[in-house]
Amino acid sequence: MGMVGGGPGALIGPIHRIAAELDREIVLVAGAFSSDAKRSIAGGAAYAIEPERAYPSLAAMLTAERGREDGIEMVAIASPNHHHLGAARAALEAGVAVMCDKPLTATLDEARDLERLVRAAGLPFGVTYTYSGYPLVREARARVAAGALGAIRKVVVEYPQGWLAGKAEGKQAAWRIDPAMAGSGGCIADIGVHAFHLAEFVAGLKVTRLLADLAAVVPGRVLDDDCQLLLRFENGARGVLLASQISVGERNGLRLRVYGEHGGLDWQQEQPNRLWLYRADGGTELIQAGDASLGADAVAASRTPGGHPEGYLEAFANLYRDFAGLVRGEKALLLPGIEAGVRGMMLIDAAVRASRDEAGWIDFGQSGSGS
Amino acid sequence: MGMVGGGPGALIGPIHRIAAELDREIVLVAGAFSSDAKRSIAGGAAYAIEPERAYPSLAAMLTAERGREDGIEMVAIASPNHHHLGAARAALEAGVAVMCDKPLTATLDEARDLERLVRAAGLPFGVTYTYSGYPLVREARARVAAGALGAIRKVVVEYPQGWLAGKAEGKQAAWRIDPAMAGSGGCIADIGVHAFHLAEFVAGLKVTRLLADLAAVVPGRVLDDDCQLLLRFENGARGVLLASQISVGERNGLRLRVYGEHGGLDWQQEQPNRLWLYRADGGTELIQAGDASLGADAVAASRTPGGHPEGYLEAFANLYRDFAGLVRGEKALLLPGIEAGVRGMMLIDAAVRASRDEAGWIDFGQSGSGS
Amino acid sequence: MGMVGGGPGALIGPIHRIAAELDREIVLVAGAFSSDAKRSIAGGAAYAIEPERAYPSLAAMLTAERGREDGIEMVAIASPNHHHLGAARAALEAGVAVMCDKPLTATLDEARDLERLVRAAGLPFGVTYTYSGYPLVREARARVAAGALGAIRKVVVEYPQGWLAGKAEGKQAAWRIDPAMAGSGGCIADIGVHAFHLAEFVAGLKVTRLLADLAAVVPGRVLDDDCQLLLRFENGARGVLLASQISVGERNGLRLRVYGEHGGLDWQQEQPNRLWLYRADGGTELIQAGDASLGADAVAASRTPGGHPEGYLEAFANLYRDFAGLVRGEKALLLPGIEAGVRGMMLIDAAVRASRDEAGWIDFGQSGSGS
Amino acid sequence: MGMVGGGPGALIGPIHRIAAELDREIVLVAGAFSSDAKRSIAGGAAYAIEPERAYPSLAAMLTAERGREDGIEMVAIASPNHHHLGAARAALEAGVAVMCDKPLTATLDEARDLERLVRAAGLPFGVTYTYSGYPLVREARARVAAGALGAIRKVVVEYPQGWLAGKAEGKQAAWRIDPAMAGSGGCIADIGVHAFHLAEFVAGLKVTRLLADLAAVVPGRVLDDDCQLLLRFENGARGVLLASQISVGERNGLRLRVYGEHGGLDWQQEQPNRLWLYRADGGTELIQAGDASLGADAVAASRTPGGHPEGYLEAFANLYRDFAGLVRGEKALLLPGIEAGVRGMMLIDAAVRASRDEAGWIDFGQSGSGS
Fold this sequence. Notes:
The structure is a homotetramer. The first copy, chain A, is α/β, with parallel strands linked by helices.
């Protein structure tokens, strides 16, 4: 695997590396870690990449690796959003599979372009909506699909963070609040898309309409840092999506609650090995990683016995494991693909539009078929 | 004290009785527990009320008690919403103070009428927004007022329940889902007003605009049983209010989170003796009942040492204790009064209007001054 | 009801008052609140007791009340341990029923004396092991009795507090650390007996042997403030009892875990409306107050719907309600009686003996039959 | 790195592999996965090890690898306890560093032998007391060392599991309950040593005396499956160690509480990213992974930002990272070494002796100096 971005100071690059390699099916061997040749080599060194495979550009990497017998078969795109489309296009055109960080691109138009490219290329393509890799998220999805809750009536997904409540400082903050790099969405693009994907993934339903109230709360900020959305799903179910980066004290509080005709569930990312299940008779069950009652998806996504906590890196690794399966020609039904990526961009686009001038409820639009 | 309603089969009547008497400042000695004379006597017997003081009507009670040396000085109105105005009017006209259950009345017009009556009468008047009686809610309010969070930016208040997710059965459900008795709001009137009052009470801010998405989810239901609201506060802060009675598995999950410029807080009704406080430096403090750091309001609202849980009845009793103070001529700054009652009705009215035809953001309107 | 002790500055007196009166079956009308006549009147005033019924001694109270038509039928003994025997004897000899605070007496010999008096008197007698009054403790007991866990194998009961970790100050601390008033046990007598009763009550088993490690940790302290005990139950089950008043940061952390052949349970006093139930198949169920699955004892011990927390005062009130039933001639199978009181004293005695000179395992001894 | 054991069906082998490789400093390239040549190759294949480096014995591996330029520098011993000494001896004699699973050996005599070998060899040696690798365990240790709690007075460490409550089935259970493979201790050897190391590691104190109550609860079991120990530390502090494998419903509930003169702390393995800190003034602070207040050890042991849970594999990887540092000639002060390994065996030996015939308190004995 080659990495695009993830150079010195990067947050998510090392996480991609660990996640990709955790199951020994993928190895990071090359990268275009920076457009500065020296910085790219320095970035590569942090991953124990040989200098000759730490390239100053993706183009250089694709060209050089093509000439190697052990050249890369896939890239992980871990650069800021505005680079995603270009990088993915170059890789796909070179016949290299792509695991792309979220959000898919900087704009919805770019996403539509990328969707066409992916469908045309017929190469493995994944989007790292990491949270869908947690075993108990997959268990939740399976239970909903099996009818444990009955018809879904209500979905509450929230994603509070507090790290941008003050003047944002540091590299991680800088690009996320800059429209030139992040695109038209701030918080909605950075974490809103995670919440959105989680909701659709577990509920097994697509959003068809929404209403949005986005704001740039911190003085001087251009992009939204606090988002309140109301949702309507295809079956008429109603929903709420809250995402915030100004909620002081919150770390990474992604939480999903789904309520159906005769059951409910509750999952929280900061305690990921637990899933609450509510029955209409008033019973409350705590499902835990390692439980004998878990279905195949959750079991397959676990590496340790019950009571030995797995976390974010393992969830992330589950996406890479799915991806490795795709590369081997297997199906990877749970791996977020280009459609999920596009839907995330549709969310950003719709939320920004709906919020502008208090536009009220707007249609979410259609995504292509397939995944 | 005399009670209006709360007869055989009543849920809230016995709770009013316990709460009122807990501190020995008020005693339930009479009641118009039912319009059926026999049932009223039977209802009274459950409270150990002598048959002669279990009246078939409020009018009868007021008349008879006026003639007694030990006649009642106050009534607790615990009957369904559509009786509140009439009962309160009769009591006030008889010079009797009133503790009224929520929501204040069945309609906003009634609430305005009642407001005039209360102001004219100059008698003690309280509304049992019970949750504002919890010691740690009062602590939260005091900390916000003292600036612990800085300027408030965001308020998330939610109140999920699940008990009306199926076909509603029993007396408690019956009147709450009947517009003739409940008024124009269902869930928003039954529990939305609690959430709303809690938010304004702790944040120390008034809502000025809102947007609402109310639905009657259970087939055949006329009144809303699930509510999603977006809020705007007077200082520009943004908010969300969720109330639901179809969230299977939820008991009485009232929860309030408030985020400011440099702090946040989190309180949950089902663990009422705890208050989470977040600092901008990333620190998380758990404030507990009995802590040495508590302010005067929380201390005054506590009856046991730390670690000895107080609950709903004690919170309720704190409102009655405040009320007893009012009757003695003291101030009761924390007791919800007529203004808070009217604001609850404004919420119901605005939410129903805003939700109709997806009306978008609407102005909340002005409440009178004073409390 | 008349109270013995509980005068100015008392902690537990007002709690007895609220608990006794909560269900309106008992009313506090008299008291010997202090041996100083003026203080007794002042103490009575805090409970709205008429001065003439605030007596300077129990003897005076018993004499005077016997002469009244509305004289007291019972006393609550809320004075320090060394007064219990004398007070209880005087009351019983006057034909007055007794609710006695724990521990039963100051010494085991006194307890044996009191046991004889109670059995001879044939009057209602209760001991306020408050925690057995919680609805979910009673549910736990019922489930164990019904075989939900199979044969019991292990019991872990712990009761950490931290309030005596420093130099003890104030009236509450003073008598508890003084052997002249508290008796031979400190922490073991003050809270160890609660933990012990809870364990036997829920497990439905009696302790037959124990090994103890008691210490006076805080410099200068005479009585134990930290206790570690190993237990053996009559069926061979093993157990641990930890009680501590020097565990800084702990409030009132009483917790009971019971494990059987095919199930386990966990209850924690600071979240008293929850009971965890573990099944041998790995399933985890959270039982909550108000649940439809609760048995008759838990339902009878609840006053509010699910999700409306009940707490310590309500648990305490359940003991008084049981007591009121006894007075009316009903059975009160769950109310701790003289046998439970004596067993608590046997615990203190055995623990102190076992701890002295590291005596190893010692027999717990036999208590009388009946309760 | 080469692995000893961890072949087909192994639980802990794959965990060693992931942990060792997580930071890319160590790669598993060889193994003696089974004494059956075919099974060893099959075992190796599961780790993508070339057949030629999947050996039928450790001796074969050491010999062959010595002849390779890229031969292994270290082994991870992941076989049952009774193999540890022989394997470690062979490796050390071949000049190969050793990471050994716990408990160190099958008997204390073996441990003393191994201690001599390790000291003589002067090669890196580690013992995988995994839980000491958690960031917040290291934070706890640092805070205690810095005096945050004052002098330590009490340590409560517990490790309840339930997986051996029934008839033990499967390979994992089989060897653990067989004295020929496990040694003289069952539960005390399998998990008691973890709890013991955690307690000494965080408290910074050594146990000097103990009293033990070990039992084989499940009918037919020879080795203990439930352990209750009382402890005395070198400074006079008192402690309790509970370990159990018959506590139905418990997963892997390792928990440590430490109380000092003016503070307390609480850490639970199933929520490993949280550390509770209690102050003598009654304040309660929740320290979380990623907090700005964390010290250098905790920061160094973290790979993700706050709110992104790290778990058991990452904790395990922290030991391997420390080990890699040792191999590079750095110090690894937090990595459990031979002394910690021997102390674990002393615990087993002392607990078994103390429990036999209810021997009462016994001296724990001295361990060598250094680590």
